[in-house]
Write a structure and sequence with these properties.
single chain, 421 residues, alpha/beta, eight-stranded mixed beta sheet, five-stranded parallel beta sheet, 19 helices, 13 strands, elongated, disordered C terminus, binds adenosine-5'-triphosphate, binds magnesium ion
């Protein structure tokens, strides 16, 4: 099994979408060479490891044996060996004498040897990785140690943020969430973090209560039961954790409470769309850094460009093991407005736009006043097409999108009617 996994993802690019949650644990790594130590440093500083504490040392298994002769072993021990089968087994035999029974051990070896792998598993080694390893592969292995075998995979958090007010970020977040849940049958929760001015409830024509505000106000008892009660169901597969959309009460957002809320939500659905307000605060920064995917929406103007550049640079720096954020250029081609050409915008940011959405006051205006989605107003419009492409990418189905020449959405939307007749 290990060998298949190794062979099927040799390229770095294959590692990029690791959705992982790693708890507050101590991890120690003993590497044989500098290169592996650098990879372990990259593991230690990854966003997914924010709660864990990780030390990286050289000297391989022998160094570990010496250190732990005099001290307790951590929750997770990662050791590297350059030996062949027999040598690895002997080294690990010595380690076993000083290793606490609760410690989980990941071995990085340099021989691709199934017999060795089986032997190690039989001896209680949690994982054997064949080097050279990639940081995300190691993170995935650590996360697997803490995953209960019967639990669902944790959901992906996709945060939508606008580079300035009114660029259309919320509209896109809601549309993408809606499309992904409908066309790809992926259970989705849209979380509206624009507490005072959020529009998710309005856009889905839902009477919503306090939603997220109530959860934030009850930070000591955030659990599944509370979140379930606060969700508003929009369809079979789409729910809303709405914002109050009122200025009656001022709600301050605590980063930790928000993190707990999102952790509960992602435990239960594969996709969590987060609609971020255009605010720069510790909690917005933290939410963006920790999202699995960030979608930045910008209009093709100068102020947008400056903010987009700052945001992209910040996120690239804070998320070195992630793909760059997705860029959406929205409201392009407003008549008579001087605009920065898309190519120039992309060049300045060093990120190609995933989609460019034209300005279309009719489609968006009608959608907005009818409580509909642009795709419902006119499924054949350029706007609907672009949003659909974005939804396909968020759903992880871009290959299917490229392969098919026609859009499935209008076809699928007719299905219930066909069934009835
Ligand atoms: N491509 C477009 N063409 C025309 N109107 C658009 C387009 N995209 C969004 N809009 C409209 O722009 C308005 C603002 O959109 P939205 O609320 O989604 O922006 P936002 O970036 O979330 O703003 P905020 O800063 O308030 O959070 C809405 O009325 C929406 O319908
Ligand atoms: Mg918004």
């Amino acid at each position: 099994m290990m060998n298949q996994a190794q062979e099927s993802r040799p390229a770095e690019s294959a590692h990029h979408d690791v959705v992982a949650v790693i708890p507050r644990v101590n991890i120690q790594a003993f590497c044989e060479d500098e290169q592996t130590a650098r990879v372990m440093q990259a593991v230690a500083s990854d966003r997914r490891m924010a709660k864990a504490h990780m030390d990286v040392e050289l000297g391989g298994i022998e160094a570990a044996v010496q250190v732990f002769a005099a001290s307790q072993t951590p929750a997770v021990l990662i050791v590297e060996s350059k030996e062949h089968r027999q040598g690895v087994l002997e080294e690990l035999g010595r380690l076993a004498q000083v290793c606490d029974s609760g410690t989980r051990v990941i071995v990085i070896g340099h021989v691709n040897d199934v017999v060795l792998y089986r032997e190690l598993v039989a001896q209680g080694i949690s994982e054997y990785l064949v080097g050279p390893v990639h940081q995300l592969q190691v993170i995935e292995s650590i996360a697997a140690l803490f995953k209960e075998s019967d639990s669902n995979p944790i959901g992906r958090i996709v945060a939508f943020v606008g580079v300035k007010g009114g660029v259309g970020s919320s509209t896109l977040a809601h549309n993408v969430g809606w499309l992904v849940s409908r066309d790809f049958a992926i259970d989705t929760v849209i979380t509206d973090l624009d507490l005072a001015f959020g529009t998710a409830g309005l856009n889905f024509n839902q009477e919503t209560a306090q939603g997220i505000a109530e959860a934030l106000g009850a930070s000591d008892r955030i659990d599944q039961v509370l979140i379930d009660r606060l969700l508003t169901k929009c369809s079979d597969r789409l729910s809303l954790l709405a914002a109050p959309g009122s200025i009656e009460r001022e709600v301050s957002v605590d980063s930790d409470a928000l993190e707990t809320i999102l952790a509960v939500v992602r435990n239960n659905v594969p996709l969590v769309v987060v609609d971020m307000p255009n605010v720069w605060a510790p909690w917005t920064k933290q939410t963006l850094v920790h999202a699995d995917t960030v979608v930045i929406t910008a209009t093709p103007e100068l102020a947008s460009l400056r903010n987009a550049k700052n945001l992209v640079d910040f996120l690239k720096g804070a998320r070195p093991n992630d793909r760059p954020p997705l860029l959406v250029i929205n409201q392009a081609g407003v008549q008579k407005r001087p605009e920065i050409p898309v190519a120039e915008f992309a060049k300045a940011l060093g990120v190609e736009p995933t989609v460019v959405i034209p300005y279309d006051a009719v489609v968006f205006g009608t959608a907005s006043s009818n409580g509909q989605m642009p795709s419902e107003v006119n499924a054949k419009s350029k706007v609907a097409e672009a949003i659909e492409t974005l939804a396909q990418i968020i759903a992880g189905r871009e290959q299917a999108a490229k392969a098919s020449k026609f859009s499935l959405a209008p076809f699928l939307s007719k299905l219930p009617k066909l069934r009835k007749s």
